[in-house]
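Re: weekly structure request thread

Next one in the queue (337 aa):
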Amino acid sequence: MTRSDVPGLDRRRLIQGAGLALGAATLGLDPARAQGPGTPGTRNTDTVRLGWGRGGLPLIARERGEFEKGLADQGITVKWVGPFPNHAPSLQAVVGGSADFGFWGSTTPALAAIIAGSPLVFTNYNVYAPRSTAIIVKKKSGIDSVKDLAGKKVAVNRSGLGEFLLVAALEKHGVDRKSVEFVYLNPPDASPAFGQGRVDAWSMWTPAVDIARDLYDAKNIFFEGTDLDFLIDYSSLVSLRDFTTKNSAVVRAVIDAYGREGRWISDNPVEAETIAQKEGKYGDAVRDHLAGLKRQNRFYEADDAVFLAGFQKAADWLADRAILPKRVKVADHSVRV
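Done, posted below.
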């Protein structure tokens, strides 16, 4: 088991589930019925609006075109909404009615929105490995370890991957959180702030952290894939509860299409990273580094009990450290179709 795995997940069960979905598609059956439980086959729209960003699963799906073709075969038209710089504005688009799904972003801001009263639900989860979120500093900064962050400014995105990774790093290395200044910036603002020296470090995810490391001659002082003791955050497909109930067949079709796209990415890392590079406009060195990670996507149904136990542990950890304002029962906001 790698540190990126959710402890105890039954991979055989996942493989069997994927095979069941494929078999249902081959036989012309409704995947929602074949994979039950859940509300069978409700559908009140023929158009689905999907959030996307400048990296990750939705970007590849949007650029390749196979995702849209697969849904078109089922009479579903795809409209892409974005690009979004991170998950929070993607969630706002869903809540505000301009998108039906977020863009496979972090579970942490989704939980924060749910706690605040947004009627969002998780419909599917993705764990990709190896994880590559990192805290970076410039090589000439004189900062060589997490302990050296005391008295420094660190850019993070509020209630997201950047913030929780910094909290975890400080806790692991015995650094008082109050001794570090958290500077809340979204990625487009954090990158120039880091480059210009207005912050001393940046806690960020792929590919922005890899681009910054190359662009600003930076290095890791904490790397999620090796230094984090357990997975605290996951990629999630989020929608409104009402939309999920009224369009369970559409939601199922979207989940299955993303599953096929994720498997293609896992099997074709060079091609996938080349697509991402075109959108991100970064150099070949960054592309080759990311392709060399050979990340694998693993998808989990919203009612997977073992997965939800790991997710609940993560949510409690975040609440206990005030990254989330209070505890929340994740199973109550996780809906399988």
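The domain at 11-130+232-333 is CATH 3.40.190.10 (D-Maltodextrin-Binding Protein; domain 2). Residues 1-39 have pLDDT under 50 and may be disordered.
Next request, please.
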